[in-house]
Amino acid sequence: DPLVAQRLGDLHLRAEVLRLTAYRGLTAIQKYGQPGPEGSLTKWMWSETNQLLTQFAADLLGPDALVAGGRWAYELLRARGNSIEGGTTEVLKN
Q: According to a count of CB atoms within 10 Å of the terminal CB, is the N or C end of the chain lower?
């Protein structure tokens, strides 16, 4: 399915950008002795990517993904919580 392949490719690209941004943040800490804005950016990117990933899994699994007490139902809800923990995405964008 081309749509599934496209979404999977987008998630892979986001994961790679997230990985490289995290390394950039670690490099800044090593170089300057303190974290830079990459930490907030990484958190923001992670929360968005995690929501997209869990929604993708739920879409692939269909109604089975939302079984009460199931792993993907939990992951889908936790992804929303991750966007709030450590500062909401809206606050981080400011």
A: C
